[in-house]
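re: the backbone from monday

yeah here it is again, tokenized this time
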């Protein structure tokens, strides 16, 4: 088997294990981070508050990401600032107000090891699956988008525009960093902003 096939098999096994864990434990309380046996993938740190901030709300009432791009769907009307570091260096970032982004905020803080996927995005496994209920209309991912790929239960950080919109890919927010920095990132730490 080549390395690509082995990675795909490992991701499928991880996704199956996460799915079985989620099915066995339906408590989605954010009082404490879920236990994980994969220290290589994520390292939860102390819990931080996740109150939304209106700092990136434009006068029109629509949110703008750090890049200035509007997040148009009505369920994304309040952005939440987050603290993100890529390989130990801070970058500006926000989460939208979608149900999946709010569920993701409940996992924070997280430190995840990133791997390249299709020379378009950096991906990492999350400690549990996120909600997909109330998902906004699918949108094609853009460079800088932080997204959740529901079938695999992983986080995706796009450093190139994605090929097309997919109902399986939920945009969680945006990271304001140049594409070279996003493409080369090996580790991401995400925390709620104070």
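seq for it, each position gets an aa:
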């Amino acid at each position: 088997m080549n390395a690509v096939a082995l990675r795909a098999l490992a991701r499928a096994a991880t996704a199956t294990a996460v799915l079985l864990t989620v099915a066995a434990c339906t408590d989605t309380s954010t009082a404490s981070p879920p236990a994980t046996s994969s220290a290589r993938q994520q390292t939860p740190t102390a819990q931080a508050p996740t109150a939304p901030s209106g700092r990136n709300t434009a006068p029109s009432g629509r949110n703008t990401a750090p890049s200035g791009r509007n997040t148009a769907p009505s369920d994304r009307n309040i952005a939440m600032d987050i603290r993100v570091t890529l390989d130990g260096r801070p970058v500006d970032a926000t989460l939208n107000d979608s149900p999946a982004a709010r569920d993701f905020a409940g996992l924070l803080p997280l430190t995840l090891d990133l791997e390249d996927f299709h020379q378009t995005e950096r991906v990492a496994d999350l400690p549990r699956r996120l909600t997909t209920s109330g998902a906004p209309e699918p949108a094609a991912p853009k460079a800088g988008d932080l997204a959740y790929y529901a079938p695999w239960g992983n986080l995706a950080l796009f450093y190139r525009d994605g090929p097309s919109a997919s109902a399986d890919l939920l945009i969680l927010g945006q990271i304001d960093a140049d594409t070279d920095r996003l493409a080369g990132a090996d580790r991401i730490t995400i925390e709620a902003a104070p």
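Helices lie at 3-24, 99-105, 179-184. Residues 7 and 26 are 28 Å apart (CA to CA).
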